[in-house]
Amino acid sequence: MTTSNSCSVLKDVVAYVDVWSSDKTANYSKPFIQQLQEMGAQVSKTFNKQVTHVVFNNGHSATWRKAKKSGVRLVSVLWVGRCYDDGVRVDEELYPALNDESNPVLKNKKHRCMQPKDSPERTPENDRRMKKKLDKMMKDLAPKQPLVTDVSPIIIDEESGIVYSPALKRSDYMAQRLKDMKEKRENLSPTASQMAESRSPTGLKPSLGSTPTILKLMYDQSDDDSSASVAEPGCSPDKEEGRTQVDVTDHGRLGKRHRKGPEKPWLSPCQLTEDSAALELQKNSVSALSHTLESRGNECTVAAGLTELPSEDEENHNKQVSLSLQKMVNKTKAMRTLVMTSMPTEKQHTVVQVVKALGGFSIVDRVCESTTHVVSGGHRRTLNILLGIARGCWILSFEWILWCLEQRQWIPEEPYELSDHFPAAQMCRLQRHLSAGEHQQDLFQGQPAMFVSQHSQPPTQSLVELIQLCGGTVCKTVRQAGICIGRYSGRRPEGSRILSEQWVLARVYHKLDDRLYSIYQTMVLFFFENYTGVEIVIYGDIPKNKENVIYLSNHQCTADWIIADMLAIRQSAIGHVRYVLKDGLKWLPLYGWYFSQHGGIYVKRSAKFNEGAMKKKLLSQTQSGAPMYLVIFPEGTRYNPELKNVIADSQAFATKEGLAVLRHTLTPRMKASHIAIETMKGHLDAVYDVTVAYEGTLDASGQRRPAPSMPEFLCKECPRVHIHFDRVDIKEIPPEPVFFRRWLHERFEIKDRLLTDFYESEDADKICRFPGEGKPSPLNLSKTIPSVMILGGLTLPLLLTENGRKLYVRTWVFGTLLGWLEHNREQLLPLSFLDSSFTMGVDWIGFGYAAAIAFGGFMGYKRKASVMSLMAGLVFGGLSAYGAYNISNDPKDIKVSLFASGVLSLVMGMRYKKSGKILPAGLMSGLSLLMVFRLLLLIMV
């Protein structure tokens, strides 16, 4: 449709739009409203008498009945699309609206929009109270006025900086000053460098009569001396306010400067020149210098005088001025800059005003070498965010600016760092501070040279900078490149690859995320391997080079997850470890959400296995080039010799399917493994077939006992772990589901024979070991202790500061609920609460969190805090105990969780009740078990 006649196609139409999805959970009216308005139609928000057309699809029954009764034309969305495409008004009879009233399910189903409302965010522009409060705070936060003494207008700081005081009535003062100088033959006050000499250890103090300085410094009366140097986005530096030019006057001659044009007051900018060597300071640099010094509150005015310098002091004076100005230039270079991203205009104005008032920063549009802070108004992964992470900058929320405004000073950044949304930012910032020289990422060091297309989006220059910051090599011609980034239609060398710009951004994110995960998991291995002193014996040769693999292992206990990390760290691939997890584990506070963000996949072991979601997640990982070390336990649940019924069911299933019966493992399930291998076949190198056995799991009678859980492992109940390793090339695995199932079961038959030899060998020398030669593989302490120190240092601010403790508690409270919303945003249906599989899983723990908190707050409000504490603790404890049992399969966890949660909640509730804080008593009772559950997570996860 052409633009010329687009506004007149439906000029006589007044439409009411009621368009919903087939399940009546999503309102799709907005895009059709936009199309109607583009064609000149009026769109009414309500169904009134002026409406001539109703666009209807799965809408409300009341709308349908009213339209039928009033005789308004009912049309489908196809009519709108046809009019929009053809550019003419199409006959409404060709596209009538339909209403399926015969279906009782759809007829009685209510419209429940699960989309967020379009309510505008509260900003100073649309909220009068907020604007009034901000205006008052900005008015109170006026820049500090210069401090001027009654004796001299010269104030010199300790770092030889010069700041000019605009508040003094200079003309009157200088007239009196010159008169006194003539009478008493005094010279000017000493310079900063001379003051430094006067403080020297030698004790030599030059007299005022020999002070080697004649500086003629003037201000432009029109300049705003109290304003900070802030380059607002979109403005050129030459147009900024608050600029000052400073040059050095000729020290060997005396004379007046003649200026063209009208005479200005003597406080106007002039140039300072040096006799031996001219030192020119650019306007921008001096402006930044002026801003830096003003922000520190040091102010100085240097008066002009007419006296002769002694000839013997001229050379020393020149050196002193050069040194002083060089220090000033160095300060200018060290000026910090701040960048805003994902921020609406009104928030940008707030940031600019706060920076002007508090000083210390200059605002720029893009992250550069001097950038130390990136303030984000949202959680989008913008180019400035990635550049900030690569340079090790602070990535902060807008709340930091508001709290700085509230406190009227720059406050600590840690509580406002967006580490939850950009986990790698904290690590990269710490690495930058710890590095001796300029910090350099190594993300793209192993990649061939890259050519960035001129048509790329983000811009070419920005992508080139990001690649180089991450250790990549960029070439100017495509002939030299192994990778071409962006759209390129010309000829390219054979073997070179064309990749989307998003590949660079996604790869940067995954690389930084893998580093963060590596630091955390390495810290975990410090406790499970270095602290426990367990001996790891490996049968087989682990490849030294990193590979993209799938890790298939037998499953006996929660410590099996740690064994995968133990093998990965020996290949320097611990950051690449990702898991296929059972769906219930997504309820682990924070961990459940983060494992998914890191590339983990949650699957249901029932018939409701979501094959499409798993494929989508794996494809997104492979397309971004993420390294893969995918851990899968095909058995689906743990082998526990005490659970006879589980073993019997597994063996019965194998007999039914005509498969070999396994004694020391369960019958493997093939669906998740097959989907993973087939989806990533072009990305994978091999499959690691791993068999794990724990020494110390045979009792005195020779019967196999359950493998140690994570708490038992940490209590040093397992002296030695035996790992049998076998590498299978990806080309050897059959793709057909029938043959793959047979292949997988044969691999578990091999595992079963190995475990039979391990537990039931008649040779005393061969029992509790696998066939073949086993080699002990100790883990060097140098690989784990740095992570412990880093994470320990990052945790201390959370425990020692008030804001840190608040952030700590809030994160754990909302971690599970947010994780549940993240994983179920596509399945949020009104009737999902009645799903039987839903009620049988650990999904109830999330609702237990919400219910316990709400119940605790209500009962605390009713002044029954102490009794309620015990009740809420027991109820909440039961839910979490069930979750703990689901995780560890250990009945003892139920007793421990119930007892600990009840006692802890009772103590905390009574403590707050005694202090008179009734509502906190109820809330703390509801939240108390989060702490218990937190302790369990620290041990088990």
List keywords for this structure.
941 residues, alpha/beta, Rossmann fold, eight-stranded mixed β-sheet, 43% helix, 9% strand, globular
Structure description:
Pfam families: Acyltransf_C, Acyltransferase, PTCB-BRCT, Tmemb_14. Residues 5-97, 327-418 form the BRCT domain. One of its GO terms (cellular component) is membrane. With 941 residues, the protein is of the alpha/beta class. It folds into 6 domains: 6-108, BRCT domain (Rossmann fold), CATH 3.40.50.10190; 170-224 and 245-331, no CATH class; 337-434, 3-Layer(aba) Sandwich (Rossmann fold), CATH 3.40.50; 450-499, Rossmann fold (3-Layer(aba) Sandwich); 530-785, Glycerol-3-phosphate (1)-acyltransferase (3-Layer(aba) Sandwich); 792-940, no CATH class. Helices cover 43% and strands 9% of the residues. It has 29 helices and 19 strands. Strands 15-14-16-13-17-18-12-19 form an 8-stranded mixed sheet, sandwiched between helices. Strands 2-1-3-4 form a 4-stranded parallel sheet. Helix 11 packs parallel to helix 14 (460-469) and helix 26 (844-861) packs antiparallel against helix 29. The longest helix is centred in the middle third of the chain and has 31 residues, at 501-531. Mean pLDDT is 69; it is low at 144-171, 184-312, 825-850, 860-866 and 925-941.
Short overview:
The protein is of the alpha/beta class. The chain has 29 helices and 19 strands.
Identify the strand order in the major beta sheet. 15-14-16-13-17-18-12-19
- In the CATH hierarchy, the architecture of the largest domain is 3-Layer(aba) Sandwich
CATH topology of the largest domain: Glycerol-3-phosphate (1)-acyltransferase
- Bin the strand percentage: 5-15%
Radius of gyration: 36 Å
Structural class: alpha/beta
Question: What ranges have pLDDT less than 50 throughout 5 or more consecutive residues?
Answer: 144-171, 184-312, 825-850, 860-866, 925-941
Give average pLDDT, whole number.
69
Helix count from the secondary structure assignment = 29
Number of strands: 19
- Determine the fraction of residues in helical runs and give it as a percent range: 40-55%
CATH class of the largest domain: Alpha Beta
Largest sheet: 8 strands, mixed
Distance between the termini: 59 Å
Number of domains: 6
Shape: globular
